[in-house]
């Protein structure tokens, strides 16, 4: 009985999702020409495409058998649709579907004009009926909720567009036959990555090859030898982001090498890692040692980074409010506070995102480095029971979260900044809040 109920549920779900795609905005798979998803019989252009040997871009299926296609539209004058200001590399409120079509979600409001190069604006299709979006409890990473795009709900930031671009290869498409008669093959989207969640650094566990492909190590030259003293996070083809305090040391100056794709830094000839010489370092202009504020920096490498199974950027978390309660920290640092040297092997640890007031009680007395206390551009995270934490050598490394239904896509929420000790009871650490610096990052990186 359970088997039949499951099949019926899946079929109902497919029908519901497919019919809801009619009227959504889309782009042609090969030409990137703008269009609207329509029932195939309502799109005369499909017949012409077929005569020319061009396969239509499919948005989905109505009742499992009738194709919903991306139908080219030139009706910009009526206000129903406007192509993006940067059609070659921009995205709207949506994602690529299993058939290669980029399908957006409709909204009733319209954006105001802007001159910002970091924001992609779109006119939304006019709607006269209420649109119901899924409840947050059924969150799917393929769905972008209107209230999660930005402060005015009408645009996609450049970093969000790049997130979609960089993570597209992390999904695979397989074909399956629906369990009803006279139906076509249905495409199913499958996650494709090494991350299978974080079981349970200090109190952490070793990371697997390719599990955190955005992890980077910063190498300093000391007496002709490389010392890996800080972490960083890959965010584009040329840039990693790290802590500003990692950009200069008294004995070794600034870092010279960025290593990517490695979980064991003791290997000199690893098969998966690549070393990149540093071209320039851009610390945040408001960072001022010894204060801890604005502890963030961008590092550009000299040659373009080639992405692979082991090397791929993390997405930037653009929302100031972090809804996920559990985060993941990774680093090559010490496994206990008094250890004489770094382990140089990538570790992972799950940490709770805490209210900043909790860290204010821990660090409130430090007037020299924190004259304004713990502020909104910082994140407080840790395990109050102790035993799990980041430590020396993890500085500059990532604090990330994943969405509920997609463990393959990582969002960078914080950069390891400082702490009081490693893994002690009631001693959480501070991370630079990435969402506070999105505009600064976008203006430099893209």
The strands making up the biggest β-sheet line up spatially as 3-4-2-1-6-5
How would you describe the shape?
Answer: globular
CATH class of the largest domain: Mainly Beta
Tell me the number of structural domains.
2
Q: Main beta sheet: strand number and arrangement?
A: 6 strands, antiparallel
Mean pLDDT: 73
Give the fraction of residues assigned to helices: 10-25%
Q: Taking Cα atoms only, what radius of gyration do you get, to the nearest Å?
A: 24 Å
User: Remind me, CATH topology of the largest domain?
Assistant: Thrombin, subunit H
Subcellular location: Secreted
Main location: secreted
InterPro entries: CLIP, Peptidase_S1_PA, Peptidase_S1_PA_chymotrypsin, Peptidase_S1A, Trypsin_dom, TRYPSIN_HIS, TRYPSIN_SER
Keywords: Disulfide bond, Hydrolase, Protease, Secreted, Serine protease, Signal
Topology of helices and strands:
Elements: H1 2-19, E1 25-27, E2 34-39, H2 45-51, E3 58-62, E4 66-72, E5 94-96, E6 102-104, E7 119-121, E8 155-157, H3 158-167, E9 171-177, E10 185-191, E11 205-206, E12 215-222, E13 225-234, E14 239-242, E15 257-260, E16 274-283, E17 297-301, E18 315-316, E19 326-331, E20 347-354, H4 356-363, E21 378-382, E22 398-403, E23 406-418, E24 429-433, H5 438-445
GO molecular function, one term: serine-type endopeptidase activity
InterPro entries: CLIP, Peptidase_S1_PA, Peptidase_S1_PA_chymotrypsin, Peptidase_S1A, Trypsin_dom, TRYPSIN_HIS, TRYPSIN_SER
Family: Belongs to the peptidase S1 family. CLIP subfamily.
């Amino acid at each position: 009985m359970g088997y039949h109920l499951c099949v019926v549920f899946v079929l109902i779900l497919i029908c519901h999702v497919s019919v809801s795609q009619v009227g959504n905005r889309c782009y042609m798979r090969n030409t990137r020409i703008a269009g609207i998803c329509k029932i195939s019989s309502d799109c005369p252009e499909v017949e012409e495409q077929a005569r020319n040997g061009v396969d239509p871009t499919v948005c989905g299926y109505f009742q499992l058998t009738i194709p919903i296609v991306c139908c080219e539209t030139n009706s910009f004058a009526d206000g129903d649709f406007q192509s993006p200001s940067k059609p070659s590399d921009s995205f709207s409120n949506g994602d690529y579907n299993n058939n290669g079509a980029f399908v957006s979600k409709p909204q009733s409001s319209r954006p105001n004009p802007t001159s910002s190069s970091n924001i992609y604006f779109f006119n939304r299709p006019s709607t006269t009926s209420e649109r119901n979006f899924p409840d947050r409890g059924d969150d799917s990473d393929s769905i972008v909720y209107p209230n999660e795009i930005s402060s005015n709900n009408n645009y996609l930031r450049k970093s969000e567009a790049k997130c979609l671009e960089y993570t597209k290869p992390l999904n695979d498409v397989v074909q399956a036959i629906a369990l009803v008669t006279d139906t076509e093959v249905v495409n199913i989207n499958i996650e494709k990555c090494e991350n299978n969640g974080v079981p349970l650094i200090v109190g952490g566990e070793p990371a697997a090859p390719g599990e955190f492909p955005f992890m980077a190590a910063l190498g300093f030259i000391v007496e002709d030898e490389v010392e890996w003293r800080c972490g960083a996070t890959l965010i584009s083809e040329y840039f990693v982001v790290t802590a500003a305090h990692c950009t200069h040391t008294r004995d070794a100056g600034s870092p010279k090498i960025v290593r990517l794709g490695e979980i064991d830094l003791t290997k000199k000839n690893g098969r998966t890692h690549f070393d990149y010489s540093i071209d320039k370092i851009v610390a945040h202009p408001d960072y001022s040692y010894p204060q801890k504020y604005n502890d963030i920096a961008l590092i550009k490498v000299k040659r373009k980074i080639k992405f692979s199974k082991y090397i791929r950027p993390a997405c930037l978390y653009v929302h100031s409010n972090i809804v996920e309660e559990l985060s993941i920290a990774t680093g090559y640092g010490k496994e206990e506070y008094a250890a004489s040297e770094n382990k140089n092997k990538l570790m992972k640890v799950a940490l709770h995102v805490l209210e900043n007031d909790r860290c204010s009680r821990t660090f409130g007395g430090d007037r020299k480095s924190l004259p304004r206390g713990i502020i909104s551009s910082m994140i407080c995270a840790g395990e109050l029971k102790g035993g799990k934490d980041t430590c020396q050598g993890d500085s500059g490394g990532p604090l990330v979260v994943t969405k509920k239904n997609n463990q393959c896509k990582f969002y960078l929420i914080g950069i390891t900044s400082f702490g009081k000790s490693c893994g002690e009871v009631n001693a959480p650490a501070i991370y630079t809040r990435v969402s506070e610096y999105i505009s600064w990052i976008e203006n430099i990186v893209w």
